[in-house]
Amino acid sequence: MEYFLREIEGKQAHDPLFMNNYNKSSSSSSSFSSSSSSTVWVHGPVIVGAGPSGLAAAACLRDKSVPSVILERSNCIASPWQLKTYDRLRLHLPKQFCELPFMGFPSHFPNYPSKQQFVQYLENYAESFGIRPRFNETVQHAEFDGKLGLWRVKSVDKVGKTTEYMCRWLIVATGENAEAVVPDIEGVEEFGAPIKHTSLYKSGEEFRGKRVLVVGCGNSGMEVCLDLCNHNATPSLVVRDTVHVLPREMLGKSTFGLSMWLLKWLPMRLVDRFLLMVSWLLLGDTSHLGLDRPRLGPLELKNLSGKTPVLDVGTLAKIKGGDIKVRPAIKRLKRHTVEFVDGRTENYDAIILATGYKSNVPYWLKEEDMFSKKDGYPRRPFPNGRKGRNGLYAVGFTKKGLLGASMDAKRIAEDIEQCWETGANHRTTLAPSHLPQPNS
Ligand SMILES: Cc1cc2nc3c(=O)[nH]c(=O)nc-3n(C[C@H](O)[C@H](O)[C@H](O)COP(=O)(O)OP(=O)(O)OC[C@H]3O[C@@H](n4cnc5c(N)ncnc54)[C@H](O)[C@@H]3O)c2cc1C
Questions:
Q1: A GO molecular function for this record (predicted)?
Q2: Whose CA is nearest to atom 29 of ligand 1?
Q3: Domains along the chain?
């Protein structure tokens, strides 16, 4: 190990970016050896993902004078927001609950900023903290090298060039929504009309005058239905599971804010009862519309399973008015036809899958302890899921939105700062000037 570091130090003296082809001399595991790949030593943590979580982690580290490098697979920050969301999207929660550490939203932004405003906020955030991610670098493999005591993080760029980053700390910030979930539906190949996931849906404009089946009744599915109505399409909504629909605002306050406030004084079950009672007064009995409520209350369910209640922004009125039809699960598809499990068949011109997203961590992180292979989330529940072994961290996997990500980012930076200060040998062997585009 000591020999290895000395060798790095010697090479570094002649290479400001400190990128090498040293594979032959290192004792690397076979999965990493590639004659064309370059190697980069990172002085500080590598953060995978330049969404809000990755940016928050980099800013908190910078606040502690710890440099970091962010690797991002797309060509921009917050790529899901910029590239994979519909035009009418706004933050679901009021802006004060969506701030990243050290920087609030501008006061002239509305209570629920549009996605363009949120992206603008994130761009300003990155700029303010000097965060410059390395774009178009998809992390395909990351593994701890026990012999070196370092993480080896391998990325590939658009032209297929691979780079291996060596670092002492690895922060996973690839998000809970990294890959679209597309269900297997019998007869998909027979349907013969567009079927697209919400990550590809932009606006109802392209469906004007068409019959569209939206599958999934979370916040996205509900909002896409409303958008389709507003563009004179005729949507139906597949509702397979029970769902809590709550008004976005209650008693002049945001439902989320009110819940947080009540939870300071009351047990969760009581707050749930209150939320359900006010929802019933404002929205009526949703089960009459085909939207049965789960047995557990909205907050308890969120806490136990991570399932988010739908905050209604007008869809329910359209369902009540008959503009949106509620349908049960799909049995199978035929040509331009959907057969439902209750035996009914209907014709549709398109299907939108609002079937959610999943983590992609198991595909690239070769680690068994911290992350579950099954769902790609940390095994240990909040707040203990953010720290693994050998300098591995996770930010943004709490199912608690941007608030949870900010909490993670702060704690992770505090943790790494302690090791940084207590004399890791990075200071003597490697100088910050040799970093590739550090975030500091
Ligand atoms: C429609 C929608 C609305 C939401 N509204 C709110 C809200 O109002 N308030 C709230 O608190 N939360 C909200 N959330 C939840 C959550 O806060 C957001 O999804 C947020 O973007 C999560 O940030 P993140 O950085 O953890 O993940 P992401 O924003 O998903 O960013 C992860 C980044 O990692 C990159 N990446 C993934 N894999 C790799 C790889 N292998 N190599 C390199 N890069 C990779 C991705 O390209 C992406 O840029 C919403 C979510 C959705 C889907």
A1: flavin adenine dinucleotide binding
A2: 51
A3: 5-178+359-425 (3.50.50.60), 181-356 (3.50.50.60)
Q: Are strands 330-334 and 170-172 parallel, antiparallel or unpaired?
A: unpaired
Q: pLDDT: is 428 or 164 the higher one?
A: 164
Q: For residue 286, what pLDDT band results from cuts at 50, 70 and 90?
A: very high
What confidence tens digit (pLDDT) does each residue in 329-340 have? 999 999 999 999
Mean of pLDDT over the chain: 89
Distance CA 247, CA 281 (A): 10
**C-alpha distances in Å from residue 238, one per residue of 92, 126, 149, 202, 386:** 22, 39, 50, 20, 35
Separation of CA 175 and ligand 1 centre (Å): 5
Question: 3-class DSSP state for residue 350?
Answer: strand
Cα 52 to ligand 1 centroid, rounded to whole Å: 7
Pocket of ligand 1 (CB under 6 A): 48-54, 71-74, 78-80, 85, 89, 91-93, 98, 138-139, 173-175, 177-178, 220, 360, 364, 396, 401-403, 405
pTM check: above 0.70: yes
